[in-house]
């Protein structure tokens, strides 16, 4: 890969290093993961020759960007702060270019039931689901509503917050008597819970990047959690999950999975980078689960695994994404 283009200096003659601000931290349940991602991004960018610094998304951010403008911002924030579109909308108001999907697309992707509806309407497969707010159970009676859910979706089920990342609050429910406690636990992370039919199969992380020639899927990462469920503990506890990249699936299935990830990226209006989570059933069908507009970028995250397996250097990929955003704004 070639190095990221540097913007011209104030005199228009001497180029200067691309100046980037990496946003990390935030005040969500995923703060520690975000700090880890942000540190990794900063280290990779510096290694690639970018003049980068890390900032938190706090009251000092906008004054700091105004006083010392960046050529572009890289958002390494996870959870609502970095993924629900609100921060990106503020950056748009401030005229600050950033890597990643626009605010409206992030709002759609952040709402898992809404994203699944769009994906299903596009003809892609996704497990059947029901999403309901806490008030519905309170007003109509939890027992009656849960019975209807099980009658509709069957068992086992996946219970997860309707928005959020890092698999926080995600649980597999195999027996009816486990469902109420799983719901209560899930509501700790949000007002709306999505209950989804559990699909048995090979879990994949499908990363997509767009370096200027349109979105392309990187090699699929196969996820094999020791517990059988890729929850928060399995993601962030060393040794509890095995990763295989490229995934151990037939070539035709890998091609269909890659096509699904690119189509999801396009149908939802995403930009620059994304990671789609999917399940491949024993008969080779690929089912969409959810999409992440701010995928993890820690040393053990799946997006960097895919980038490396594709033959890229992570720092150069990130630098090129930043340079494209700076150039598009300057143009």
Query: In terms of per-residue confidence, which ranges show pLDDT below 50 for 5 or more consecutive residues?
Result: 1-14
Number of DSSP helical runs: 13
Rounded mean pLDDT score: 90
Q: Distance between the terminal alpha carbons, to the nearest Å? A: 23 Å
Helix content: 25-40%
User: What is the element string, with H for helices and E for strands?
Assistant: EHEHEHHEHHEHHEEHEEEEHEHEEHH
Features:
six-stranded antiparallel β-sheet; single chain; alpha+beta; 39% helix; 331 residues; four-stranded parallel β-sheet; globular
Write up what this structure looks like.
This protein has 331 residues and is α+β, with helices and mostly antiparallel strands. Helices cover 39% and strands 21% of the residues. It contains 13 helices and 14 strands. Strands 9, 10, 11, 12, 13 and 14 form a six-stranded antiparallel sheet that branches. A four-stranded parallel sheet has the order 2-1-3-4, with helices on one face. A four-stranded antiparallel sheet has the order 5-8-6-7. A hairpin with a 6-residue loop joins strand 9 and strand 10. Helix 7 crosses helix 8.
Short account of what is shown:
The protein is an alpha+beta fold and 331 residues long. Helix content is 39%, strand content 21%. The longest helix has 17 residues, at 31-47.
Write the layout of secondary structure elements.
Elements: E1 19-23, H1 31-47, E2 51-55, H2 61-67, E3 72-75, H3 80-83, H4 86-94, E4 98-99, H5 103-110, H6 112-121, E5 129-133, H7 134-140, H8 142-153, E6 157-161, E7 171-173, H9 179-187, E8 192-197, E9 202-209, E10 216-217, E11 221-225, H10 232-236, E12 241-244, H11 251-267, E13 273-280, E14 286-292, H12 302-309, H13 314-330
Parallel strand pairs: 1-2, 1-3, 3-4
Antiparallel strand pairs: 5-8, 6-7, 6-8, 9-10, 9-11, 9-13, 11-12, 13-14
């Amino acid at each position: 890969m070639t190095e990221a283009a540097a913007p011209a200096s104030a005199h228009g003659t001497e180029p200067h290093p691309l100046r980037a601000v990496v946003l990390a931290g935030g005040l969500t349940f995923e703060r520690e993961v975000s700090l880890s991602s942000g540190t990794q991004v900063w280290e990779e960018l510096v290694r690639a020759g970018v003049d980068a610094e890390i900032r938190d998304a706090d009251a000092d951010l906008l004054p700091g960007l105004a006083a010392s403008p960046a050529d572009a911002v890289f958002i390494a924030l996870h959870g609502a702060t970095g993924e629900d579109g609100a921060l990106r909308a503020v950056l748009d108001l401030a005229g600050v270019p950033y890597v990643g999907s626009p605010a409206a697309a992030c709002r759609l992707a952040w709402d898992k039931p809404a994203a699944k509806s769009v994906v299903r309407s596009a003809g892609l497969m996704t497990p059947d689901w029901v999403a309901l707010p806490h008030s519905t159970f309170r007003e109509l009676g939890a027992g009656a509503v849960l019975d209807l859910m099980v009658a509709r979706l069957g068992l086992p089920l996946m219970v997860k917050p309707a928005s959020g990342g890092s698999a926080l609050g995600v649980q597999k429910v195999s027996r009816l008597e486990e469902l109420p406690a799983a719901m209560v636990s899930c509501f700790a992370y949000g007002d709306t819970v999505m209950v989804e039919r559990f699909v048995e199969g090979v879990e994949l992380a499908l990363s997509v990047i767009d370096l200027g020639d349109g979105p392309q899927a990187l090699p699929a990462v196969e996820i094999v959690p020791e517990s059988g469920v890729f929850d928060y503990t399995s993601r962030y506890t060393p040794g509890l999950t095995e990763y295989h990249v490229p995934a151990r699936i037939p070539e035709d299935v890998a091609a269909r999975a890659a096509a699904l990830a690119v189509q999801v990226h396009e149908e939802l209006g995403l930009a620059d980078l994304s990671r789609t989570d999917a399940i491949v059933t024993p008969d080779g069908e690929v089912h969409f689960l959810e999409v992440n507009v701010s995928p993890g970028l820690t040393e053990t995250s799946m997006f960097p695994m895919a980038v490396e397996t594709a033959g890229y250097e992570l720092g150069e990929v990130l630098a090129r994404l930043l340079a494209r955003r700076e150039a598009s704004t300057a143009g």
